[in-house]
């Protein structure tokens, strides 16, 4: 896995591009907005977001608990801390507290009962509205942006590995290969 495609184009959104994406998401229907926020602030895969159920939104703990779908076995979960604003939006739009008070605590109550293609189209529409294009303008570009932002912020690689659900630390280490402003931010920490 690399952060650049065969043509040398970046496969991740910069911090500024991610900000534009989130601002554009504010103008979309509420369900699409919360999906976009979830992808941007958790670094999860689109399929993992679409599989998220109300019982896996831990409002008190401040985390989303994702079933790691890429490991090809059931029962592997990871908790990812997310901003309070995302948790509030999920509760407001999807009725998390109400679902968790019911029998089963919201198990099986998917937040977005959409197909993968419907979710992809919703994210793509926001990318277009934000003026973003190319390989980075995708749900995967948001995942990569999360990894780059985490490393740029000084989050230890083993923690980023845990949040992204990577089996190998070497996979996570690609986020240390960021360029441009992100690379400058990383280097600046060494210079100070």
UniProtKB/TrEMBL annotation:
Key word Ribosomal protein present: no
Keywords recorded for this protein, A-Z: DNA integration, DNA recombination, DNA-binding
Keyword DNA-binding listed: yes
SUPFAM superfamilies, alphabetized: DNA breaking-rejoining enzymes
Residues of the Tyr recombinase domain: 8-188
InterPro entries, sorted: DNA_brk_join_enz, Integrase-like_cat_sf, Integrase_catalytic, Tyrosine_recombinase_XerCD
CDD domains per record: DNA_BRE_C
Database matches in PROSITE patterns: TYR_RECOMBINASE
Entry's family note: Belongs to the 'phage' integrase family.
PANTHER family noted in UniProt: INTEGRASE_RECOMBINASE PROTEIN MJ0367-RELATED, PHAGE INTEGRASE-RELATED
Protein name, as recorded: Site-specific integrase
